Amino acid sequence: MVSGPEITMRPVGRVESPIRDRQDAPKQGDEGSPDAWITFEPGVREAIQDVEAGDRLVVLTWLDRADRETLRAHPRGDVNRPPQGVFGTRSPGRPNPIGLHTVTVLEADNLRIKVSDLEAFDGTPVLDVKAVLGPVEER
């Protein structure tokens, strides 16, 4: 591993989802994920106050149940395909299991937002949320 300064993160929220384990989860959010809620910590209330239904967001999660020792994986879990290095795949198992999910906000309610296309397990820590930027409009 590369040495350097220690990185400390704290979750800003948690996923509330009917997905409880791997066999219930689709490979990607747009492949049949149920709607889910993200419940935010009170300390980040100001950070989410302008999020509203229809917004597209990128949600960064910590895949806390993933195997951090995995360096190679069969793409999409298909053992008929040769294993690849995880940096060239979307495998949840990896040295730093950060999940990247593009979602659409369906509803915003105080410290909670309901989203589509989030394939994370119930209880998954949310590290950050960023707006999806569209094409730059001509001025």
**Overall pLDDT confidence:** 87
Rg, alpha carbons: 16 Å
Oligomer: single chain
Task: Give the CA-based shape.
Answer: globular
Low-confidence stretches: none
Number of helices, where a helix is a run of at least 4 consecutive DSSP H or I residues? 1
What structural class should be given to the helix and strand makeup?
A: mainly beta
Number of strands: 8
Report helical residue fraction: under 10%
Major sheet strand order: 1-2-7-6-3-8
In terms of DSSP E residues, the strand content is 25-35%
The biggest sheet amounts to:
6 strands, antiparallel, barrel
C-alpha termini separation = 46 Å
Q: What is the H/E string?
A: EEHEEEEEE
